[in-house]
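Order emerges. For instance:

***
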Amino acid sequence: IITTIDYNVQSIIEKYMVAYNQEKPSKNTAIVVMNPKNGEILGMASYPQFDLNNPRNLANVYSEEQLASMSDTDVTNALYQLWTNYCVSESYEPGSTYKPFTIAAGLEEGVVHDGDTYECKGYEYVGPDMIKCHSYSTTGSHGVLTLSQALENSCNPYMINIAIKLGNVRFAQYEKMFGFGAKTGIDLPGESEDIFFDQDGVEGKMYDIDLAVAPFGQNFQITPMQMIMAISALANDGKLMQPYTVSQITDSDGNVIKSTEPTVKRQVISKDVADQVLAMLEQNAISGGAKNGYVAGYRIGGKTGTSETHRDN
C-alpha cells in the first residue's frame, strides 16, 4: 500500500501537537492536512497518542493510581478511546469555523454581497429568543460591519441575518452540498456519523432557533474530516473533493494493481464566490481573529472557532 501521507508533513504536525499539549494539555487534539486540489490527505494525527510497538501501554495517559483503580472494563474502554482516530471517528461542535460556509452560501444565492454592511447591536432576536454576539459581554456590539469585517470580528448577528435571508431550506441544502450530514467516505475504518439536522430539504425540518444558531456553528456536530473536506472546497474553486489516504496498491513485484484518481464530488459554489471568501479568510489571518496563524512570506487564510460545552445536569 502506497499512502498519500507526506513524511515531512506528518513529522511536523506530530512534533508540534505533542509540544502544544505539553504546554496546554487537552482532552483531545486533532490535526488534518489535505491537498485541496486533489483530496490527498498529507498528514493526520490525534492526541493522546499511543506507541504502535506497545499499543496497550496506558502509562502516558493515566497515573499509576488511576490505573490501579481501573476495572478490566475500564481498561478496555480506555484502550479503545486511545486507539480512536479522532480525525474520522469523533465529532465536535465547529463553532465559528462554520461561518465561511454561511457567507459562501449567502454570496452564491445573492442574498448578501461583498461590501454590504450590517449593524451589529450585540444581539439578534429570533422570535422570543435573544441570540447574543460574543461582543455582547465585552464591547456590547460590533457596530456597522462589512461582510469581510463580520468574518474578521466573528460577528454572530451578521451570520444570523444571512441565514434568515437564505431560509431553512436553502441553508440546509448548502450544508448538505458542503458535505455535512453525510460521511465523507474516506478510505479509513471507523468513520463516525455527524449529529446534524434533517437534510431532505423539506420546509420545517430545521426549526427557526436552529437556523439562528447553525450559521455560527452551534447546535450540531461534525467530524474533523468533514471540516477539512468542506473548507478545502473554498480553496479549490468551489469544487468538493473526495478525501483519500491510499494512492496505490501494488503486488509483491511492484506492479500497480489499483490506483486512486482524484474525484470531484460536486461543484458547491462558483469560483468567483470561492475567491471572495478566500480573500476574506486571508484578511482574517492578516488582521483579524486568525492573525496568530499568519506565516510571513505565505498567503494564509484562516478562521478560529469556539465550541460550547454542554453538560447534563
Q: What stands out?
A: Residues 85 and 224 are 10 Å apart (CA to CA). The first strand starts at residue 2 and ends at 3. The chain has a mean pLDDT of 91.
